[in-house]
Specification:
This protein is of the alpha/beta class. It folds into 2 domains: 9-73, 2,3-Dihydroxybiphenyl 1,2-Dioxygenase, domain 1 (Roll), CATH 3.10.180.10; 92-146, 2,3-Dihydroxybiphenyl 1,2-Dioxygenase, domain 1. It has 3 helices and 8 strands. The protein has helices at residues 17-27, 41-47, 99-108; strands spanning 9-13, 31-38, 53-60, 66-73, 92-95, 119-120, 130-135, 141-146. The protein has a 4-stranded mixed sheet with strand order 1-4-3-2, with helices on one face. A 4-stranded mixed sheet has the order 5-8-7-6, with helices on one face. A hairpin with a 5-residue loop joins β3 (53-60) and β4 (66-73). The longest helix has 11 residues, at 17-27. InterPro entries: Glyas_Bleomycin-R_OHBP_Dase, Glyas_Fos-R_dOase_dom, VOC_core. Pfam families: Glyoxalase. This is Lactoylglutathione lyase. One of its GO terms (molecular function) is lyase activity. Keywords: Lyase.
Length: 151
């Protein structure tokens, strides 16, 4: 029987690939593995969509896996931005060090978060850690998570 072998990537559909790369690469520091225009017919079949092409970038996540940014061309695009409590929504969480320094950098670059600053986690298995939900240029939530000191 087949089984899950590991994590490959998480995909995020974006409105403008270059604006999103400023957030994920310039801001968060994720390394661009490749950026390419894809238009293979298999994509239209597997996605069941009629579009011209997809501008795609794969960004390496330290420790393994990728974030895939997808900018569809030649098709109507609508925002899927949602609140964390809305079903069908989601978020990606990154382990970070020095969360306040990253937050300060992102705020100076003009990005916003759901809270005004990093928040101390006061209960549960991550008590003693810190968290921040940044919003990417399209409103997709990216959680920065700093582990508790004793983790």
């Amino acid at each position: 029987m087949g089984e899950i072998l590991g994590f490959f990537h998480g995909g995020i559909t974006v409105k403008d690939l270059q604006k999103s790369l400023k957030f994920y690469h310039d801001g968060l520091g994720l390394k661009v593995k490749f950026e390419k225009l894809l238009n293979g017919p298999y994509l239209r079949t597997v996605l069941d969509l009629k579009f011209d092409a997809i501008n795609v970038a794969f960004l390496e996540v330290p420790g393994g896996g990728f974030i895939e940014l997808l900018d569809y061309q030649g098709i109507e695009k609508l925002s899927a931005a949602s609140r964390p409590c809305d079903f069908g929504g989601g978020h990606i969480s990154f382990y970070v060090s020095k969360i306040d320094e990253i937050a300060e950098k992102m705020f100076k670059m003009g990005y916003i978060a759901r809270s005004e600053s990093c928040v101390d986690i006061t209960e549960g298995p991550n008590a003693g850690g810190r968290s921040l939900y940044l919003l990417d240029p399209d409103g997709y939530p990216i959680e920065l998570f700093m582990r508790p000191a004793d983790a």
